Each structure stands twice: as C-alpha cells, then as structure tokens.
Amino acid sequence: MSYQIELRHIRYFLAVADTLHFRKAAEKLFISQPGLSRQIKEMEDQLGITLFDRHNRQVLLTNAGLYLKQELSNNLKSLDAILNHAKLLQAGKDGQLSFGYVGSAMQHIIPELLLKFTQNHPSVLFSLKEMDNQKQIEGLLAQDIDIGFVRLERVPRGLEIYPLLKETFCLVLPKDHPIDRSNFKNIAQLKSEPFILFDPEYSASYYEKVMEIFDESGFSPMVSHNTIHADSIYKLVEHKFGVSIVPKSLQTVNNDSIKFIELDTISQRTVLSAVWDKNNINPMLVHFLNLIK
C-alpha cells in the first residue's frame, strides 16, 4: 500500500496536534485555516484514519492521532538532525553538539572535555546552555540537546547516565567569619546562622543530599534564600546574608570576600554525571561518549 503523504502533511498535522486548535496552528504555519483543514483532511483520507475528533469547537486527538504525534515527533527530530548534519558537512564542519549543563560542570569538566575533543574534531560546532536538571531531562527527551551534565541519581527510561565526578561539599563563609579551618569541627557550629542554598527545583535530589548533611548534624537549617546560581550565593554570603554549602568544584579563588571549608569528614558526596538519549543518532555524540568513557 502506498501513501502520498508529504513532509508538509506531517508538519501541518504536528502543528495542530500541539495546539489542538486549527486557527492557532494556521497562524503558526502562516497559512489559511481552510487550507490547513484541507491538508489534514487529505492526510486522513490518504491514511484511511481519523486523526482528530472535532466537536463543540473542541479538537481532540484520536488514539491513532496520539500515536502518530508521538512517533512522528521523534522521527521528525531525527530527520531534522540528519539534514542539519548534511548542511554542516557541506559547510566543511564535522557536525554539531548541543550541551545542557548545571553551573558547576562549566568550572572544569566541560572545558577540559571540549579541549580534548577538539584535538581530533576541530570543526565541530558547540551549543552550550546552562539549564537546571529537569529542563535538561526534558531537552534530552525532546532531542533539543544531545548531552546533559546533571546532578541526578536516576533518569527516565530511555536515557543513559554516566558518573563523571564524585566530590565533597564545601562550606561558604564570609572572609571575616570567626569559624575557619583551624577551629571548624562540624556544621552544627553554624546552626544559628541563616543558610543560602540552591533552589530545590534546580535539583531535588541534590537538595535532599544537602538536607542529609543537616539531618546527620542534628538540626534543621534556617534557609534565608534559595537561588539557582553560584554567583548569587557568593554575593549573598559576601554581604553576610548567610552561609552556604556548595559542591567543591564550585570553589573559587576569584573572590577575596568569601572563604571555603571542605567538608571532607562527612559521608555525603555529590556526583556530576553525563546523561544522553540512547536513541540519539547524532554521529558526533558517539565520538564524544567514547571520550568521556
């Protein structure tokens, strides 16, 4: 059985499937609403199935339509990636890699990996975007990014995770704080201090790991501020709004107004991992994974 389905039919169908509104989809596609309706009806006639239930001005996907939306979305992403890779080859590039990452990964891990990778692949285009853990997972599942650098212990089915760095935590204190390495015993000494922590929405599992530190120290912290950026934490600590706990890889020597105390005697460690979609067909991803492994 042959179908006269063209790429435009698929793009039109996905636009309506995403919006569940013919007028909004037509505006998004820059075509007329009657023209879009004809294209969808043509696709339904060619396939011999009903894609949408239309009643009372409401548009819903049928079971067949829902299945096609899921499968075609994934395969269209792959097709776009293939065509884009061909364009890069034509332009003399080896390919492209899109990264998502939490801020601490950019301190050492990613720069070192990119330097090593470009030794053998000097003509690869890189796209890098700082994202929280959940946004990276969503981006990987949607194939909007090729690889993520996260602080997660588990990932959804279909994704692969590989630990890169297991590290200690550090206390962050104002430079003139009375507690320093010489008199520090445990963080219970700071139970009366406000704490500035990474927002739990940035990484729920990371936040729980930090809470374990407080649990084992016998107190619940007074959390004065939550933020998603290390620089914001350091500024708040510098101006004495509180103290903080961060991964050791975020320790900086560029701020003379704060100091760090490594918490190397506690059991808690945080792990930075690479995560990717095992069905991603980007050939450059295969080379990059060979490097990190």
UniProtKB/TrEMBL annotation:
InterPro entries for the chain: LysR_HTH_N (IPR000847), LysR_subst-bd (IPR005119), WH-like_DNA-bd_sf (IPR036388), WH_DNA-bd_sf (IPR036390)
Keyword Nucleotide-binding: no
Molecular function, one GO term: DNA-binding transcription factor activity
GO cellular component: protein-DNA complex
Keyword annotations: DNA-binding, Transcription, Transcription regulation
One Pfam match: HTH_1
Domain HTH lysR-type: 5-62
SUPFAM superfamilies: Periplasmic binding protein-like II, Winged helix' DNA-binding domain
Family recorded in the similarity comment: Belongs to the LysR transcriptional regulatory family.
Protein's recorded name: Transcriptional regulator
UniProt lineage: Bacteria, Pseudomonadati, Bacteroidota, Flavobacteriia, Flavobacteriales
